[in-house]
């Protein structure tokens, strides 16, 4: 298995991983993006994200997608949007290899923080993150407003 930065041609397999994650997170119909969206937004003149993939026998078995954010307290930070490993490949160190690559990417750039979300029922992930030295912030809530909410709010 090797971990490398994704190339545009990897995006069909990355999208399949994203769809698998949506099923795992009990949101099977939530994925709205396409391969073309991933290719355009990740590999254009000003890419919005960086993606790392784990490859085994010419198959992508995992991916981690990150992007830069700005913190008023810390400056430039990194957001780990998703870390995905194919269900059949879990427990083989693939997730940890991708996670380590993300942390190395942030460290090499002198970033002061990497942040991400984890579902409260994903106990295995929470234990892994805590063992790695990450701090699970329990008194903050993640807030999202979807397209319908945006429309309703701005038109109210």
Automatic annotation (TrEMBL):
Bilayer-crossing regions: none
Record keyword Transferase present: yes
CDD domains (alphabetical): NAT_SF
Tree of life domain: Bacteria
Keyword terms: Acyltransferase, Transferase
Domain N-acetyltransferase: 1-155
Organism of derivation: Aequorivita iocasae
Protein name: GNAT family N-acetyltransferase
PROSITE patterns according to UniProt: GNAT
């Amino acid at each position: 298995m090797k971990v490398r930065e994704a190339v545009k041609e990897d995006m069909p397999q990355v999208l399949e991983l994203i769809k698998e994650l949506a099923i795992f997170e009990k949101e099977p119909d939530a994925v709205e993006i396409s391969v073309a969206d991933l290719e355009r937004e990740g590999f254009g003149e000003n890419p919005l994200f960086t993606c790392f993939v784990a490859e085994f026998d010419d198959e992508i078995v995992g991916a981690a997608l990150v992007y830069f954010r700005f913190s008023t307290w810390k400056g430039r930070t990194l957001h780990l949007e998703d870390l995905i490993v194919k269900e059949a490949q879990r427990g083989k160190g693939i997730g940890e290899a991708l996670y380590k690559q993300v942390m190395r990417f942030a460290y090499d750039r002198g970033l002061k923080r990497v942040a991400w979300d984890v579902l409260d029922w994903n106990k295995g992930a929470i234990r892994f993150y805590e063992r790695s030295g990450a701090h699970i912030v329990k008194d903050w809530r993640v807030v999202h407003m979807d397209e319908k909410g945006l429309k309703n709010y701005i038109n109210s």
